[in-house]
Design goal:
The protein is α/β, with parallel strands linked by helices. The chain contains 22 helices and 20 strands. The strands form 5 sheets. The protein has a 6-stranded mixed beta sheet, sandwiched between helices. β6, α9 and β7 form a beta-alpha-beta unit. α2 runs antiparallel to α3.
């Protein structure tokens, strides 16, 4: 991108920031596009001028309306391709995609809304889920709950200070291999070397999506191969026990955010030693493979199968109650019992026993749940095998139990927080912040997430009479945020309300405050401001 084109793009970014202060009319929007077209003509970019003129006519031909900054940004996506792509490149890009291309989650982080808008539009054909966070700090806080397959970091001049990038890359390095692509307009070699030194896998200048697609896909394939080498059991093809802490971190995050439990089942093949002694180890291997196949074929994509060691397997059933999990395990037990296994000229069958535990306490360790499941498995074996036993309460408090009981006695009432936003990423980031503030105060907190206002109004939290905080998005499907606010105030609910919005219109803010909003925060969040306002509301629950 030549200097003149880069300067025009920078002016467009400045204009976008001004749009966030309030809605713009169709007339103002069209005038801006015509100005871009005139500037493009002056710098010798007729392709940009022609696209700007086309969009201007399109905006003018429609019904007069008010545009938010986000709506305007989506509208000019075709114009942005003229800045980032070669003139002969068609749009959308003809991305190379094989039938075996697997889904992946890509986290786009940084304050570069124009480039990310272009990228999301251009990569629409890719089998990827693209999520955007406006700051490197929020990205670092979102890694565990989102489990991305790749980070794409747009490094602005404000983020150019190594501390912000270093903190993000250090956090990424604590997890199993997570590739990071840094996009920096600063093409100096010293900047590239610094990014590589901090841990980036690739450093590029803002580039066309086809090139970036190839770079990201190559890194995702590398990640998958590393995961297979390190985390997959060679014999059965399921995960090995090294993957277990990673699964638990994700499911515990789900439990903390939504209160939904998961279930862990520890399975053990019955009389497996006799099979090895009588039929040989090749037959034993065939039995292990058959059990792994049955477990994979008859569980859901969000469940996880792990070979724990020897003839023991773990099945972790996500978002599942104990009653539901028992029904799944009984089905698996009957399915495996009826399988005929052919190995080394022999035909045989086998059964398994299992210990089941419902993981419903986010502050418990992984070892705690494994001990309970192992004790239940022991009971199943003692009763003859080929059965499922559920874990009971531990006979004596394990290490840390007395400490948690003391904390519950001294911390008073539990905080209750509802996050109502149709943006999954926003919910995850806010939930992590609430948990951080609760931990600082040694308080327990119930966090419930809702994708729309209607489901929140129908929830037990809304009806049970507790004092709570509602973090409420202004614009949502099914029911507008202001409608939810009116219901809360009409029914005199004992709650504090923080409203989130991408609009910076002072009239709208005043309107919401008149209707009873306690705090008002605009997107993209200023992290310290959001934390300070939320901290103030949480303290109010104790008054």
């Amino acid at each position: 991108m030549d200097r003149s084109t880069a300067l025009l793009l920078a002016r467009m970014k400045e204009q976008y920031e001004r749009w966030k202060a309030g809605p713009l009319t169709s007339r103002e929007f069209a005038r801006f596009l015509r100005a871009v077209g005139r500037a493009a003509t002056v710098i010798g970019r007729p392709d940009i001028a022609a696209e700007a003129e086309r969009l201007s006519r399109q905006v003018n031909s429609g019904k007069e309306k008010e545009w938010t900054a986000e709506e305007a940004l989506v509208e000019i996506a075709p114009l942005l391709r003229c800045f980032y792509e070669e003139k002969e490149t068609p749009f959308p890009l003809p991305l190379i995609k094989s039938e075996q291309e697997s889904e992946a989650t890509i986290l786009l982080c940084g304050n570069d809304p124009l480039f990310f808008t272009y990228l999301c539009r251009a990569l629409d054909a890719a089998p990827w889920r693209l999520l955007t966070v406006p700051s490197l700090e929020q990205a670092a806080a979102s890694i565990i709950c989102l489990s991305p397959d790749c980070l794409v970091v747009s490094l602005s001049e404000e983020d150019g200070e190594p501390s912000a990038l270093a903190s993000l890359l250090e956090n990424a390095g604590r997890h199993p291999y997570l590739p990071v692509v840094v996009i920096s307009a600063d093409g100096r070699k010293e900047t590239q070397l610094k990014c590589y030194e901090l841990g980036a896998d690739d450093v590029v200048t803002p580039t066309a999506a086809d090139e970036l697609f190839i770079r990201i896909r190559r890194l995702i394939e590398k990640k998958r191969k590393i995961d297979e080498l390190v985390l997959v059991d060679e014999l059965t093809g399921v995960y090995n026990r090294k993957y277990l802490p990673r699964v638990y971190a994700r499911l515990r995050s789900d439990l903390e955010r939504s209160g939904t439990p998961s279930c862990l089942a520890l399975l053990d093949l019955d009389h497996f030693k006799q099979i090895n002694d009588r039929f040989g180890h090749l037959a034993g291997d065939a039995v292990l493979k058959k059990l792994a196949d049955v477990l994979l074929q008859h569980t859901r994509g969000l469940d996880t199968v792990i070979r724990f060691g020897g003839e023991e397997f773990i099945v972790w059933l996500a978002q599942t109650s104990k009653q539901e999990a028992r029904a799944v395990l009984e089905r698996l037990r009957h399915q495996f019992e009826g399988e005929e296994i052919v190995a080394d000229g022999f035909r045989l069958s086998c059964t398994f026993s299992a210990g089941l535990v419902e993981c419903d306490q986010a502050d418990e360790s992984l070892d705690h749940w494994l001990r309970l499941a192992d004790a239940a498995l022991y009971e199943a074996k003692k009763k003859g095998g080929n059965r499922i036993e559920e874990a009971g309460a531990p006979s004596a408090p394990h290490d840390g139990g007395q400490e948690r009981s003391q904390r519950r006695r001294t911390s008073g009432r539990r905080w209750a927080v509802a996050i109502v936003d149709d943006d999954e990423l926003a919910r995850a980031v806010i939930a992590d912040l609430v948990r951080k503030l609760a931990a600082e105060q040694q308080r327990e907190v119930d966090i419930e997430e809702f994708g729309d206002g209607l489901s929140f109004l129908q929830s037990p939290l809304y009806r049970d009479g507790r004092r709570f905080i509602v973090i409420l998005d202004r614009v949502m499907p099914k029911m507008d945020g202001l409608e939810v606010l009116e219901r809360l105030r009409q029914e005199r609910k004992r709650c504090k309300v923080m409203m989130l919005t991408s609009r910076h219109d002072e009239r709208e803010i005043a309107h919401a405050l008149e209707r009873g909003v306690d705090e008002y925060v605009t997107k993209p969040f200023k992290w310290l401001e959001l934390e300070a306002r939320l901290r103030r509301l949480l303290r109010g629950l104790d008054s």
